[in-house]
TrEMBL record:
GO terms for biological process: protoporphyrinogen IX biosynthetic process. This is Delta-aminolevulinic acid dehydratase. Zn(2+) 1 binds at C127, C129, C137. Keywords: Heme biosynthesis, Lyase, Metal-binding, Porphyrin biosynthesis, Zinc. The keyword Lyase applies. The keyword Zinc applies. It comes from Pieris macdunnoughi.
Length: 333
């Protein structure tokens, strides 16, 4: 060979010059409908449908508008949703009583959604912040999180959603030991083999939740969530939180937000390869990607982002883009 610096064993391009070969070089990164979960906002007012001003193409629905919208998505392949309840007339109080009262919109909607869409997997976000007068995710005593009271209450709310028919309860509150308390409550009520627990195990105190908090009106009245959500720089606490939740029986783990935290995704997947891992692509990520270009340009950014999340170890991505992703997948087939 005349160009002595060229070496055959260092030529990689021979392995990916064709689209089919490139697919083999990207194992376990495909996006199919079961890799996507759609978060939905549910209002008390049955016939309401309100655009969310901070999130283009996202709506808050009453049950009578939600079911037709979901039916259309299920027809296009949607397989799972994550429900967030919003109260406007029910009272907010220090213990978040409206989270599991019989009039709670989630509790009322669960049997109706299951009847209309029996194959759809329904996860319920479990937290107190949409229902507490102070807006914190747990119960406060003298202004600080009361650990045992908070855990007890989170387990009670989880059980109420499980009894109402949720397939998955997903505690997002970040109170230590809640997974064991929820699993115990499911056991005591013989629901342990009918309901899974998706732990928001590695949820960071991120500044990327802004549009969501506008939507949910769930910002704390005073203070912030830094004493329970994880510090964004701490991979150590994320590792310990995932280990704790695995030990307490979590069925599924989560990293939230997604894109800036892919190192945490990889770390968690490497340590717990046998636990399906979720990413929550949060409202701030949604806003950033929405502004990344027009039409197919933005769609390419979105799909690359999802591919990279899969490469990092995510099995399922919770994303407000679910309807658009189903469209994109339909175009490809
Ligand atoms: N517990 C759910 C969230 O906090 C969601 C945040 C977001 O989408 O920004
Ligand atoms: Zn909360
Ligand atoms: Zn939250």
């Amino acid at each position: 060979m005349s160009d002595l610096f060229l070496s055959p064993e260092h030529v990689l391009q021979g392995g990916y010059f064709h689209a089919t070969l490139r697919k083999l070089q990207e194992p376990n990164t495909s996006i199919e409908p079961h890799n996507i979960m759609y978060p939905v906002f549910l209002l008390e007012d049955k016939d309401a449908m309100q655009a969310v001003s901070s999130m283009p193409n996202v709506y808050r629905y009453g049950i009578n508008k939600l079911i037709p919208a979901l039916t259309e998505l299920v027809d296009r392949g949607l397989q799972s949703i994550l429900i967030f309840g919003i109260v406007e007339t029910l009272p907010k109080d220090p213990t978040g009583s409206s989270a599991d009262c019989p009039e709670n919109p989630v509790i009322k909607a669960l049997p109706k959604i299951k009847e209309a869409l029996p194959n759809l997997v329904i996860a319920c976000d479990v937290c107190l912040c949409p229902y507490t007068s102070h807006g914190h995710c747990g119960i406060l005593t003298n202004g600080a999180i009361d650990h045992p009271e908070s855990v007890k209450r989170i387990a009670e709310v989880s059980l109420a959603y499980a009894k109402a028919g949720a397939h998955i309860v997903a505690p997002s509150d970040m109170m230590d030991n809640r997974i064991k308390a929820i699993k115990d409550a499911l056991f005591e009520n013989k629901l342990q083999n009918q309901v899974s627990v998706l732990s928001y195990s590695c949820k960071f105190a991120s500044s990327m939740y802004g549009p969501f908090r506008d939507t949910m009106k769930s910002s704390p009245m005073a203070g912030d969530r830094k004493c329970y959500q994880l510090p964004p720089g701490s991979s150590g606490l994320a590792a310990r939180a995932a280990a704790r939740d695995v030990a307490e029986g979590a069925d599924f783990l989560m990293v939230k937000p997604g894109l800036p935290y892919l190192d945490i995704v990889r770390q968690t997947k490497d340590r717990y390869p046998n636990h399906p891992l979720f990413i929550y692509q949060v409202s701030g990520e949604y806003a950033m990607i929405s502004k990344s270009g027009e039409g197919s340009e933005m769609e390419a950014v979105l799909m690359e982002t999802l591919l990279c999340m899969r490469r990092a170890g995510a099995d399922c991505i919770i994303t407000y883009f679910a309807p658009l992703i189903l469209n994109i997948l339909a175009k490809k087939h």
